[in-house]
Amino acid sequence: MKHIATVTMILIFGVVGIYADPGPINMTLSGTAARSTISLQDSPAGEYHLDGNGTLGPFTFRVVSKNMASPQMSTTCLGPTKVYFSIVAGAGVFRSQDGDLLKLSLTEGGDCIDFAAGAALCTRVFQIIGGTGRLTNASGTVTLTMTVVPVLADGSPTNPVFFAVTGDVRGNVSGVAADQGSQDGQ
Predict the structure, then answer these.
(1) 10/12 Cα distance (integer angstroms)
(2) pLDDT tens digits for 5-30?
């Protein structure tokens, strides 16, 4: 009887270990942004191609999102040289170094463009909607925060078309299977 109880406990703790919850995640990233060939709500979207490292290991992250056509009021983006655009649609996909995918649906976000600084502070909040491999049972919410700076303008400095991006992803993710290849990021 003791042997059966011991084996049962080993199996229970073994299964719990397979689906370790990393809890809070922190990942840093960088990359580029430009207008996408993808249309959302019948107009072009913005597209981000990002690479980084962090709690879930090395990854690439592709994001497509669309903002409202006209500026909105914001309590967090104030000043005479700042303009705020709400994000109305989008999605993202993390691809880990081992090929596992984490699929995300955009729930909210915004871009605070500071013309005097020549940069924008952009946020995207995502709900995890699925995954593959060790990320199959993942759930949670993550926030992508980016500083976006124009690199190339088309015709005039007031029409930037290509951007450099730096930022981070923070949030809480549960249901991620243990992976021997993951590294802790900074």
Answers:
(1) 6
(2) 444 444 344 444 444 455 899 999 99
